[in-house]
From TrEMBL:
Any Gene Ontology biological process: biotin biosynthetic process
Protein species of origin: Cladorrhinum samala
Record flagged with keyword Aminoacyl-tRNA synthetase: no
Essential cofactor(s): pyridoxal 5'-phosphate
GO molecular function: pyridoxal phosphate binding; transferase activity
Protein name: 8-amino-7-oxononanoate synthase
Length: 460
């Protein structure tokens, strides 16, 4: 067997195991004309005529300048020529960073090719040896990848969106009553760091604790309790060696005045040391950004490998970010945000009505009892592939979300609402979900009846 065939055979075994568990991934294409309840383009900016026209006009103007005798004054349209530390930097990139830093009330900003690159670069190089990273158990994979490369001595998860010990109003459970490995509240983790081995380094301020959360969590759609997180960090690390980092990929554009994000909405700019933005969601383009201090920006330029060793974004990408942000900054997205919020509210209450009418068992269908704060509404079911396929056949694009993307037992389809969706589409997809639910419940009742009949006959 050749080396390549031997490798393929080994990899095929891994794929077969994943397939047997029902978790095999594959690339698919959405059929044309399907109503989009899947993508992260919450504001539907790419479908806005004014945004499209402005982007194409500026791109054509840049192309005309490139073909003119003044070509040396224009950036290259195809490619950037290298990393930003070599030949890929541009006046357009630096001007865009200054604009975005000012808009988001931050001292400085640094562009990355994606939010994934931004998180990996930030978490891999900023925490120092003997520092600790404490992170919400549901943070994005990119933060985990950054932590794997980090020199931080400890990386500890805390229970999702749980800040204080006994925050539910009940007496905090004793350690002996907690399941092995179950994440604890943020406060308990910080207390353990300060009072455990090497805790004097954190109490004296000689070592730092970085606390990683997301503004909005992409699978559940819930927002982080940022005020509580920052208050807890300040309480337990009063010397200022606790640093909160917020991934705002799913909250920028949707939260805050003119889409500035959740940190700005809550007025916490001075209590968060870094924010990671992603432009591939509500902003309708691509790329990532870190909002931080000038010193942190300089440090990242020197140490963040995902910036240093990658080709910089080309001019068309920078232009798309600029045009989208101008639309948002000038208030063009405000009607879209209002319409989006109305759709989210309508969808959620229609789903609640389905649950009330049908009273399904929890394993078949359930939705959260907490009203959504974001455009993401998870619909939990033990049969996400079946439900997603049914909705797709009805003309609605939704995707099944299964382990390992989410914890086993929390499988779901995820409804992502967009400003371009209509009330009719919302009614249609909820009706499709109810049709599937009724069919599954009828099937379960038929099976139960057959079993009961079989038992009755056996007793005759």
């Amino acid at each position: 067997m050749s080396q390549i065939k031997r490798l393929d055979a080994s990899l095929a075994n891994h794929l077969d195991r994943r397939k047997s568990r029902g978790t095999l991934r594959s690339l698919t294409l959405a059929s044309p004309g399907m109503a989009d309840f899947s993508s992260n383009a919450y504001l539907s900016l790419s479908a806005q005529p004014s945004v499209r026209v402005e982007y194409l006009a500026r791109l054509q103007a840049a192309a005309a300048l490139e073909a003119s005798p003044a070509a040396h004054l224009s950036p290259p349209l195809l490619g950037s020529g290298g990393s930003r530390l070599l030949d890929g930097n541009s006046a357009a990139a630096e001007a865009l960073e200054q604009t975005l830093a000012a808009f988001h009330n931050a001292p400085a900003a640094l562009l990355f090719n994606s939010a994934m690159d931004a998180n990996v670069g930030l978490f891999s190089c900023v925490p120092q040896p003997d520092d600790a990273i404490v992170y919400d158990e549901l943070v994005h994979a990119s933060i985990h990848d950054g932590m794997r490369l980090s020199r931080a001595g400890r990386k500890i998860p805390f229970a999702h969106n749980t800040v204080w010990i006994g925050s539910d109003g009940e007496t905090a459970p004793r350690a002996a009553d907690r399941r092995d490995g179950e994440p604890r509240p943020l406060e308990a983790i910080l207390a353990g760091l300060l009072n455990g081995p090497g805790g004097h380094l954190f109490r004296s301020g000689d070592r730092s604790v970085f606390v990683a959360v997301e503004g909005v969590y992409s699978m559940d759609g819930d927002a982080a309790p940022l005020k509580e997180v920052t208050a807890c960090v300040q309480r337990w690390l009063p010397l200022g060696n606790g640093f909160v980092i917020v991934d705002e990929a799913h909250s920028v554009g949707v939260f805050g005045d003119r889409g500035r994000g959740l940190v700005c909405e809550l007025g916490l700019e001075d209590q968060v040391c870094a924010r990671v933005l992603g432009f591939g969601k509500a902003m309708g383009c691509s790329g990532g950004l870190i909002l931080c201090s000038e010193v942190t920006r300089s440090y990242l330029i020197n140490y963040a490998r995902t910036l240093i060793y990658t080709t910089a974004m080309a001019f068309p990408s920078l232009l798309s970010i600029q045009v989208s942000y101008e639309f948002v900054i000038n208030g063009g997205a405000e009607p879209l945000v209002r319409h989006l919020r109305d759709l989210v509210n309508k969808t959620y209450h229609l789903l609640l009505a389905v649950c009330e009418r049908q009273n399904p068992p929890a394993h078949l269908l359930r939705v959260s009892s907490v009203e959504p704060k974001s455009p993401i509404i998870p619909v939990f079911t033990d049969h996400p592939r079946s439900l997603a396929s049914h909705c797709q056949r009805k003309g609605f694009m939704v995707r099944p979300i299964v382990a390992p993307t989410v914890h086993r037992g929390t499988e779901r389809i995820r409804l992502c609402l967009h400003a371009a969706n209509t009330a009719g589409e919302v009614i249609g997809i909820v009706a499709a979900i109810e049709d599937w639910l009724v069919a599954r419940m009828d099937e379960a009742r038929r099976i139960d009846t057959l079993k009961q009949n079989a038992v009755s006959k056996s007793k005759i």
